Amino acid sequence: MSVEYMKRGCRVLDGGLACEIERKGFDVNSDPLWTARLLHTNPDVIRDIHLSHLNAGASIIITASYQASVAGFCEHLQVSTSEAMGLIERSVSLARQARDDFIRDKFLNDMPPPLIAGSVGPYGACQHDRSEYTGSYVDHMTEQEFMDWHRPRVASLLGCGVDLLAIETQPALKEALAIVKLLREYPSARAWVTFSCKDSLHTCRNDLFSTAVEQISLSPQIVAIGVNCTHPSYVTPLLESAKGCTSLPFVVYPNSGNDFSDGKSLCGESFIPHLSSWVQLGARLIGGCCGVGVREIELIGNEWRALRQGLAMCCTSGPVITSELTLLYDQLAHTTLQPASSHHSMTSEITPLYDQLAHTTLRPASSHYSTTTMTSKLTLLRLVEANRDCDGLGFMKSQKVPHKLTPLYDQ
Prior knowledge:
By secondary structure, this protein is α/β, with parallel strands linked by helices. The protein has helices at 3-7, 17-23, 37-41, 43-56, 70-77, 81-106, 143-159, 173-182, 209-216, 232-242, 275-280, 294-309, 323-333, 351-358, 376-386, 392-397, 406-410, and strands at 11-12, 60-62, 115-120, 164-170, 191-195, 222-228, 250-253, 283-286. The chain has an eight-stranded parallel β-sheet with strand order 1-8-7-6-5-4-3-2. Strand 5 (191-195), helix 9 and strand 6 form a beta-alpha-beta unit. Helix 9 (209-216) packs across helix 10 (232-242).
């Protein structure tokens, strides 16, 4: 697992586990183990929800270990330490079963297999006092205490072969740094880190998000960094504040915008309109947290594919071209492109596409109201974009794409 892999296109994460569990009739909000209770009582429910997210288009699923801890299981289930460790390991096996079922039934050979991220929630999440929303415990614990507390779960998840860790919903930089330091004990481990934030600049414990991003990014074991379980309206300014602080891709999975400090996690409103802005700011892993259900994940996947193809997939009637693409598309419509043969630095791979593009007439983007009326020029741009996973990025790095095509190529 590498940073380059995470940067290569956008990956759709899964959504909130709790809201889907509640839809199935379970009450987990008053439970000190929250969703982790079902690892013991109803594991098949967790597996089925993982599979639902994969079927909805998620390419990364997160284990149900967010609120799982050895101490919590021992106290509330009266199990032994080894049995508690086994329940944490079960969170991985359930995700793997779902992935295996998905691959067997619906997987395409030309698709990369879905990834499994092992959830490492904050200490506060396992205290059942809502302190994960404030980080109020942080000042009373040492770095070593954090490392010792997180070690059993981290060891179990990595030992079961998760593809990476999701160090998520961290309210404070102090705890996140302690977990990242713990990763040094597992040199091959890779992880992303996401913070929960109370406004457009600060984590829930009042650390500057930009400072947190800068410091966490120093670890070579971190492959992405960002924000989760945060109001969608805060995400864009948070990413803007940290844009120059890291070269890592951003990972974003906000909640639905409801107030979850009271424990409610029913699926809520859509944040689909924000996606294009997040992608432009460097988000490459996008999903949902509390209140974001399977249907929303499907919409995120549709929107991302639409953005990548240069089309807008919208849930309501109206134009299917995004506002960001409209400007570039109209700019191309009024630009005369020179044949590729006049560009001595043009690569052979892009020459035929470019020449065909240069001799095609575009209509203004505002005239397109369905995917069936899209002109061939945009189709060609989609083909150019498809080459990004191969030699496409090399075009830009070597500056072999002519200036007029560059903004469209980037889009």
